[in-house]
Write a structure and sequence with these properties.
Layout: H1 3-54, E1 79-84, E2 91-94, H2 108-114, E3 121-126, E4 132-139, H3 142-192, H4 206-270, H5 276-301, H6 305-308, H7 311-325, E5 330-335, H8 344-365, E6 369-377, E7 380-387, H9 400-410, E8 414-420, E9 424-432
Parallel strand pairs: 5-6
Antiparallel strand pairs: 1-2, 1-4, 3-4, 6-7, 7-9, 8-9
Helix pairs in contact: 1-3, 3-4, 4-5, 7-8, 8-9
The chain binds adenosine-5'-triphosphate (ATP) and magnesium ion.
Length: about 450
């Protein structure tokens, strides 16, 4: 069920309940007031009769000479008076009736609901000839009920008008609310389908405006992440291509030429006058050179020692190499031996992160000291590389910091780059620890 239908049904049911309660109250009030009115009319009529007969002594009560004394009764309301004299036809008359404006009778159900069983009052008068004339006073509240019906109708119509206004107001509010909801929904669907450039408009309702702002911020963050991912992917592909070019050049320049030279020397040894020991020395020299080239190429591609010697030794080798190359930079490494069992797939990421951090220190920090600390705490690997250089912001142009963050996050870890101007940069990476071969 849609929100609009749900609200409409709820309002309709509430209004129905209000109408039913209001209607029942109106009928009950009408019933009370009609009963009261009728009772006071009957009391008034009885007082009038008593007063009227008090003026006429019993001896002069004959024929119809006493009738004028009770004619004032006609002024009373809602009564039906019957005068019954022995051996005579009963005289009946109605008292005053207020004529209903529309002259229409209320519906029977309303009359039945409002009317109660009114007692017929009886007043006996002694006549001069010793007979008794009886006056019956009966309630006839039809006009009073008509009046109550008119009031109840007005009450119902005013409630109905109020209901219409409430319905209209609620629908108007819901219309604008649902428009906002639909707009947010369509925005979220676009984000879901990969369109991160959408921006929702501002809404007048504060809560929806806050949601729209959050959606906008989310899509902006996704857009930025997508763009940096794309840039990183492009950069990775470029690096891959450059590495392939370098390898192909090295293979061509070093291997190709060396192999050609070895082949030429081998051909020379076939000739009878060749100085074989000298040629053999040359071949050995070329082979040694080739072995160096191959080792360096393999190291660039992947630190083989990681699998053979473990993370600690490979990192020590890396740090030592940097120490040899940068003698004015003091490097300290603190390695927790508990990391030796770290999964090789995670270890290579740790190695690359330390490598990139050290490269950055050398390239950007102008530092005199750098410390590399690797620890294992509560099933987490902590890598901290801190220098005392100039500090700097991880600008958007480089890819090293971005790649380190990607590495950490792809493993379910965290990456923090902290820089204090003039005091250096600290990179803290936290990775989940997993045992090798687990
Ligand atoms: N240790 C550091 N000290 C000072 N500035 C640093 C340090 N590390 C990083 N930065 C700053 O952060 C920026 C981004 O570093 P990042 O490694 O992402 O890129 P890069 O080193 O410039 O290029 P590359 O993509 O080759 O790594 C650097 O350009 C530098 O300004
Ligand atoms: Mg870098």
């Amino acid at each position: 069920m849609s929100l609009r239908s749900l609200i409409n049904v709820r309002i309709f049911l509430s209004v129905l309940l209000i109408l039913l309660l209001g209607g029942a109250t109106a009928v009950w009030q009408a019933r009370q007031s009609v009963a009261k009115e009728v009772q006071s009319s009957i009391n008034l009529a009885l007082q009038m009769i008593e007063f009227g007969f008090a003026q006429v002594p019993v001896s002069s009560r004959s024929g119809s000479n006493w009738l004028p004394q009770i004619s004032a009764l006609k002024q009373a309301r809602h009564l039906q008076i019957s005068i019954v004299e022995p051996n005579k036809k009963a005289v009946e008359f109605m008292t005053q009736r207020v004529v209903n404006e529309s002259n229409t009778l209320p519906p029977t159900w309303f009359i039945n609901a409002v009317k109660t069983n009114y007692f017929t009052e009886k007043y006996e008068v002694s006549m001069a000839d010793g007979t008794i004339t009886t006056i019956f006073i009966k309630a006839d509240p039809l006009d009073e009920i008509s009046e109550a019906w008119g009031e109840s109708k007005a009450f119902f119509w005013s409630i109905a008008a109020m209901v219409c206004v409430i319905f209209l107001a609620v629908n108007l509010v819901f219309h604008s609310m649902l428009r906002a909801v639909n707009s947010i929904l369509s925005g979220l669907r676009q984000v879901e389908s990969g369109r991160y450039d959408i921006q929702l408009p501002h809404f007048n309702i504060r809560e929806f405006d806050a949601i729209a702002e959050e959606v906008n911020e989310m899509s902006l963050a996704l857009n930025t992440a997508e763009q940096s991912n794309q840039a990183l992917a492009r950069h990775t592909m470029k690096i891959q291509e450059t590495e392939r070019q370098t390898m192909s050049r090295e293979l061509h320049d070093e291997m190709g030429q060396s192999l050609t030279a070895i082949k030429a020397m081998a051909v020379t040894t076939k000739q009878g006058n060749a100085n074989v020991p000298k040629v053999a020395d040359s071949i050995i020299e070329i082979c040694n050179h080739l072995a160096k080239v191959v080792r360096s190429m393999m190291k660039t591609l992947h630190p083989l020692s990681l699998g053979e010697l473990g993370l600690g030794a490979t990192l020590t080798e890396l740090v030592n190499e940097w120490r040899r190359r940068h003698t004015n930079l003091a490097m300290v490494m603190d390695y927790d031996a508990a990391l030796e069992g770290l999964d090789k797939d995670v270890a290579i990421h740790v190695y690359r992160i330390v490598q990139e951090c050290l490269t950055n220190v050398v390239r950007h920090a102008k530092a005199s000291e750098v410390s590399v600390v690797l620890t294992k705490q509560n099933d987490k690997v902590w890598v901290t590389v801190a220098d005392n250089g100039v500090g700097g912001q991880a600008s958007q142009h480089g890819f090293g910091v971005l790649a380190m963050r990607e590495r950490a996050e792809s493993l379910g870890g965290k990456f923090v780059f902290e820089s204090v101007e003039g005091q250096g940069v600290t990179v803290v990476v936290q990775l989940p620890y997993s045992e090798d071969g687990a």
